[in-house]
Amino acid sequence: MKKIYGNAAEALDGLLHDGMFIAAGGFGLCGIPELLLEAIKDAGTQDLTFASNNAGVDDFGIGILLQTKQVKKMISSYVGENAEFMRQYLAEELELEFNPQGTLAERMRAGGAGIPGFYTKTGVGTVIADGKEHKDFNGETYIMEEGIFADLAIVKAWKADDTGNLVFRKTARNFNVPAATCGKICVAEVEEIVPRGSLDPDSIHLPGIYVNRIVQGSHEKRIEQRTTRKTEEA
Amino acid sequence: MPWDRNQMAARAAQELEDGMYVNLGIGIPTLVANYVGDKDITLQSENGMLGMGPFPFEGEEDADLINAGKQTITELSRTSYFDSATSFAMIRGGKIAAAVLGAMEVDEEGDLANWMIPGVLVKGMGGAMDLVAGVGRVIVVMDHTNKHGKSKLLKKCTLPLTGKRVVNRIITNLGVLDVVEGGLKIVEIAEGVTEDEIRAATEANVVN
Predict the structure, then answer these.
(1) A78·B162 Cβ contact <8 A
(2) Mean of the per-residue pLDDT values of chain B
(3) pLDDT of residue A208
(4) Cβ-based contacts of A102 with chain B (< 8 Å)
(5) Tens digit of each residue's pLDDT (9 = 90 or more) over A149-185
(6) Of A48, A129, A221, B198, which has the fewest beta carbons less than 10 angstroms from its beta carbon?
(7) Do A77 and B127 make contact, defined as CB atoms within 8 angstroms?
(8) Is the pTM of this model over 0.90?
(9) Distance of alpha carbon A176 from the chain centroid
C-alpha cells in the first residue's frame, strides 16, 4: 500500500469535510503540522473542532485557521499566545473546552488504545470536575474523563520510512504520538522520507500501523521564545 | 529585610534533595535551578523531557528543543525525550518528587489557585492541575501579599482552584510556612522579619 503523497493537499484529498473533528500534534509552535494546517486553510473546510494543546499564534499554526474563521471549537490546555483566538472567544464566535494538559494527552492516548474513559485525580475539586462522574478508589476521589476519537489526526515528525514508521526529534515529539493514535486516519508530514530499512527498528517512536499517509516538505519551524545565554558566561 | 526573588529561589532550592526528579514552574521557580549547587537534580519539562539544560548560546537555538514555557533550551548528557502522554504518566504516577510553582492564592487547607482570574483573559491551566495532583510534594514560591498589600495566604481561596489540598510548603518573601492540620505553621522567618509581621501579613489561621 502506497502511503507517500506528493504534497499536503494530496495527502488530505478525500479526508476533509465540514464539521469534522481533528486531533493535531505539537506543543506551542514546536512540532506542529504546519504544512497540513496550511492545506486545510486552502481547502476551506468549515466548522472544525480541534483537539490540540495550543492554538498557535495569530499567523502560524492553528492561528491561520482562526483568521479564516474555519474553527468552531478548540479543546486545549493553554491558548495564551493568540490575540485573534481571544477576540473570537470573547465575542462568542468560538467554543473553548479547557482540558488539563495531561488529561488532554491521556484522552488522546486512551482513544487510540480503544479506551472510552478513565479515572484521574487531575482536576478533582476544580471547575474541571463539574458534571463529571466521581469515584473513590482506595480512599481517594477521581473523576472520569473520556477518550478522544477523532475523524482525522495530523502530526509532524522528523523522519519516516515509506511504511510510515516515524521518528521524532527532541521535544518536537510531544503531542504528536498520542494525537496520531486517536484519529480514524492519520496523516504525517515529515522533514525527510528515508529508504525502508534505514531506521533502526529498536528506535521507532511511532510504528507505521498508526500512519496512513505521509508527505515530505520543507518546514519553517518557527521559534516562539528565543532565549539565549551570552558566550562569556560559559 | 524580606527575601528578594533570588533569595526566595535559593531557599526553595534547599528543599530539593540529591537524586530528585523535579518540575519547576515559570517565574521565580525557574530561578531555583541556579541554586541547586552540587546536588544531583534532574529537571523535568512537561512537554516531554527529563534533564533540562540551560538556555543555548546565541546562534545555537533549536526550534525542536524548548521547555514548557516555550523558551529555547539545551540538553544534557543525561537527557531523555518522550511524548506528552508519557510525560504526564510520570507526573500523575507520582514519579516526580516535587514541583515548585508560583501561585495567586493558597489557603490554610492547602488549596491552590494559580490559573484563572474570572473576568480577566483566561489563558488556560496548561499542566498545572496535573502537576499538583500528581507529584510527591508541592512547594509554592510567591510573595506573601499582592500588589494591593492583601495577604495571598488565605482562610479560603477566592479564585478558581488549580487543586484542592495539594500544597505542602509555601516559601514567601517573609519566610517559610507548612500546611498542617488546622492551618499554616511558620517553620522559618526571613532574616530581619519578625513573627508578628508574618502573622499580620497572613489571613490564614497560623497554628503554633
Answers:
(1) no
(2) 96
(3) 98
(4) 46, 84, 87-89, 91-92, 127, 129-130, 134
(5) 999 999 999 999 999 999 999 999 999 999 999 999 9
(6) A221
(7) yes
(8) yes
(9) 6
